[in-house]
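Quick board copy: two proteins, each given as sequence then tokens.
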Amino acid sequence: MNPASIPVDLRNPGQVFACLGLTEMTEVLSGPCMMRFNYSSNETECRFELDASEDCIEKAVRFLARCKVVAIAPPRTPGNEPLSAARWQVETVTVVGQFFPGAPPDSPATLPVHLSFGGVHIPVEHWLDDPRRTGRDNVKFWAGAGGYPGAALARDSVSLLSPFDDAALSRIALDPFAFSAPMDSSFRFDWRRDYIPLDAGFSPNDQPSISMVGFPLVELLAAVGLQNARPSRLDPRNKLAYRYNVSNAWLPPCLARAVLGSGVTGFPVRAFRMNLGWPGKENQARCITNAEEE
């Protein structure tokens, strides 16, 4: 066994979700795989290992750098205008004669997307989940209602990778969660970019000379990772506290998904509490403030 391996900080929830994203993409791009968080003792900085038939991490990074982001819209209903992300220069395809992955949204802000390249389509649609209908939290931290849509956030992250050639992408794949670039907005999965103005003492949005640096691969891969796995909200009435779990056992994707949110028994598991805050108005956007091991 000679698995691919990259650094991961277990106290960075976005990086943990991104590891699930790498696993999801590997299963699609390379076939069956196994994954684990290779920690010992109580360390929180460790290696994420992914065992597949080929260099799966580099292949996933190249896919994201070359893919096209396409918004998926539900069929038009009589009397309503079709939903589209074209205003934000994102191609929109309307579903015809096939299943739309959720209740039709009220605005283009939450249209699901496909990351498409070489005939392969990776869906990103977790934010469509309505807990009242599916029982699953949609883990949507960005606001976007009637504003900048998820499709544009995904497209912006992809555009930060697309200028790199294959040699540069190979280097990035050695430590993909360290790849950074100025980002005006994001899915808010990586706390290294986010802030709460009251805690910071000022708002960078009011300072034109300041550019916030984000981590586009963490954002994209975390969005993919939440397609089939979710952290658990500790209290349905509290939107600011979640729990996620990791294991150092070798697991196939189906069990890795279950461990993240439920801490399935039978495997060694470590649990982390993810705390969030309101960077603006309450009940709008949220950002991760810290994570601590339970």
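And the next:
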Amino acid sequence: MKDSKTLLGGCRVLDLTDVKGHLCGKVLGDYGADVIKIEPSGGDTARNIGPFYQNVADPEKSLSWFSSNTSKRGITLNIETPAGKDLFLRLVKSADIVVESFPPGYLDNLGLSYSDLRAVKSDIIMTSITPFGQEGPYAHYQATDLVGVSMGGLARLLGDLGRPPVRMSCDPQAYMHAGLHGAVGSMMAYYHREMTGEGQHVDVSMQAAVLLAIQHAPELWELMKVNVVGTGQFFISVRPQPHGLLSSRMIMPCEDGYVACTFGGGASMGQVVSSKALVDWANEEGMALELKDYDFTQWDGATITQEEQDHIYGTVGEFLKTKTKAELYEEAVKRSIMLAPCNNIEDITKNVQLEARDFWEQVEHPELGETITYPGAPVKMAQTPWRIGCRAPLIGEHNQEIYVDELRLTMEEVGILQANGVI
């Protein structure tokens, strides 16, 4: 029965993914789907990814696992065994979507391919999340997140001009992009099935998901044969020769961190007004006086030299270094200056806008005796709200709930399956 209070109420998802696809199941679960996370008997290897709760290295205390597996129930099952395969197919009969991230061909060899699942449930949807997709010369290559952001072109866009490429550290960007696209593809396929009765195979490429996130860089190569690399703190303007590339610094240091600041003029009246307001403020405090009468309407980004622009930016930058992020942002709002703080995580947790939207979710962890604050809904839906249904499951936490209460196995049968390494 569908739950009209959530977007995906009544939809059941079997989640076989590793770290590449965990976000997919989380998104589906947070939107109301009944997501059953299926792990090996010892638990998903991602449980060993730190940092850990109170720095205790424990597969039940991985913060990475916590963040990417909310709103899921968890069972253990070895689908490589005949009995495990049989149990999985029994679960498929009641499922709507199967999400997996095995190498192409792995499930085929087990007799669990998309066509095999369709024989059990004709309208089943299978979403496969892999580094390079199901077909092509790279299809069987393995890849880490670093490989994903590199092969997708994102790493080369980052970093400073003239220096080696860098990756975004801490959170795995390629995995997140792939998981999110997996969730979107799954929901679209589910909607299509609701309209037509047809299931389908959703094929997600981590490389392609990353590539979609680098905006206009591919078009600049197509149209002008310019490789946009090492953008880092800059906005790179591609100009015909003899002027060439123009690097405009977008991230500037201030007293206690950094701010994003758009500075310039020309035909953009918003920038003209903003830049003049910033210079006027600096002048009031005896700084950037050489720009006092500068006519920003004459700013020509097509011809200005890099040296001239760097000098102007440097003059304004010296003023910014005398103010804190909070001071700059407060005054920017008052004076219509295009400037915003580069928030760190502490800043974000104290952000009044997120607080006003009730963004943060309090999730109970009974096994820890604590309630932990989680990021909440980026999308607000009045009729079918997003919510975190529960914290990430413990290893095999819902085995009895699924195997005994639902599949009607006896406790003796469960014990035999556990002894044989099936669950």
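Board note added afterward: The mean pLDDT is 92.
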